[in-house]
Please model this.
Amino acid sequence: MNTAARLERSLALAILRGERAPGSRLPSVRALAAERGVTVPTIQRVLDRLEALELITVTPGSGSVVRDPERSAGLSLIPLWFEALQDQPDRVARVFGDFLALRRLFAIHLAARGQHALRAVAPTLAAQAAVLLDPDLPLAERAQADLDFTRAVLEQGGNFAAVAVFNTVERLVHEVPGVAEALYGDPAAHAAVITAVAGLLVSGEGPLHLSAGLEETLGAWDAASVARYLGWLTRGPAPPPESAGP
Model:
């Protein structure tokens, strides 16, 4: 990570944590450059990025004003939100639950709308789902296989917004500690959910039956994932195993 990226991350986290309150002004470009020991052009690039992320408003001649991230921030900031709230387990677990609920709504809507298309690709989906039934599949491979399966389902709907939400979930899985463990840390339960979802997608039942079944199955899975994530946040990652002595 280069200097500008590190500064952008540092200032973004300070805003998301409330250390830079909404409505407050950042120091001038020159003051920030002196404070951080970097050049003025570097700070200018950082401020341009923060403005693009809608965390600040830059007015030439008046400086930079911090915006309220809870009102202005977009999906691209979700991973940073998780990092910023790591010391508030209950709050970040609620954010995780809200995000999973949004993903679930998109998935159910698109699955019902693209039911016929999903039946046409049933063999491909079945093959992808079969990989996830292996209880010994390593966590990283299970996470990627599940993401591949979900993307294959969503692509049948052709909805840009749903894909944007999915892409954010993918970033969470790869970038935010604890998320992969929360979603895929119980292989047996995950395999059962995948089996149930795959069965519903190719069941031949109508959209209402499909939507109700997916809501029940995925809703229970999301609730269990939130509970696992809260547990992970409270306990922290498991320590590495001790090496055996001679």
The longest strand covers residues 56-59. The chain has a mean pLDDT of 87. The chain has two domains: 3-69, 76-235. Residues 76-235 form a domain with the Four Helix Bundle (Hemerythrin (Met), subunit A) fold (CATH 1.20.120).
